[in-house]
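Please check this chain.
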Amino acid sequence: MRRPLTALTVLSLTATLTAPASAAAVWAGVDATTSGYGVHAGTALLPIPFIGTIGLEGSAERPWQATDTSYNRYAAGVTLRDLNLPLTKVDAFATVGGQLTTPTTQGGENRFALYGETGLRGPVLGPAGWRAFVRASTAGQIGAGIGLELRF
């Protein structure tokens, strides 16, 4: 009788420690970054037990101020979300994808680059949560941001 109880306890503890803070089927939010402000949205494609969720995410950003050197950013990528940080209500995410930058003023040229982004997410109230992230691209851009998102 002791062995089934022990196995059940281990399974229960494992499920508790590896459950994501807030797994979502779809999400959308707003961000403030080191270079501007924007929106993002995504959808879950494939949950991976004990690890997280693979999904698709897209974003659009504008600079704080339009100048000769500023650009708009449009991005789409594959994301691994809901990476649980045990014993917290916070989870991690990582995204890789492509971005298109377009000049905000006349002249200049559109540029495509690959990017990677990683960060943390946590709850605020109900389906609302916060997120903080850092990002780098093959175009030499490095940035960070914070935001709020709704998760359903």
